[in-house]
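Fold it.
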Amino acid sequence: MDTQLETGGTVSETRKSTREARLARVEECMARVVKQLDPLGPRRSTDRTPYRVSKMFVDELCSGYDIDIEALFESVFDNEGYDGMVVVHNIPVYSLCEHHLLLIAGKAHVGYLPNGQVLGLSKVARVVEAYARRLQLQERLTMQIADALEEHLDPQGVIVVIEAEHMCLSIRGTQKPGTITTTSAIRGNFTKPETGAREEFFRLIGK
């Protein structure tokens, strides 16, 4: 059920109006961009391009700004005495480089050592998506995922590794397709060699 706001309307209605206003603003900007980039236009095939691009950015590629991170951690359960490692790996990552608005595509590997509670497995992937679907730096994205798990689960340790190809490196600039960037955020017991946790994690993800 929607929450009623003091000013009238509901939370969902407010979000809808905010989304529509954002779509309109981005579409207006994209119309100017397309006009400047295509000296042969306008053409029928590009008439709807500004709308399609604005919808792609607002509803898909930058949709992470609208995800409530705290709500994702409502699916926390008692660990039932399980004291082993939880690893969710090969999570698809699609993000946007904030420098060139080009695609970052790869995989995330997330592991943590429970401290009395575990997160629903699908929510681990959703946390990754929530931060990935924004204008990003891969380094920041890696830390944000680790920070969220550390803050909301209070685990004994967290490790996040992301491997991704950046189109800003592959199709422009130095133009080196296939180049992979790897980043990691390592916390708690994963930083202690004597626990063997880091080695176990990399063994589990096949690295």
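The chain has a mean pLDDT of 92.
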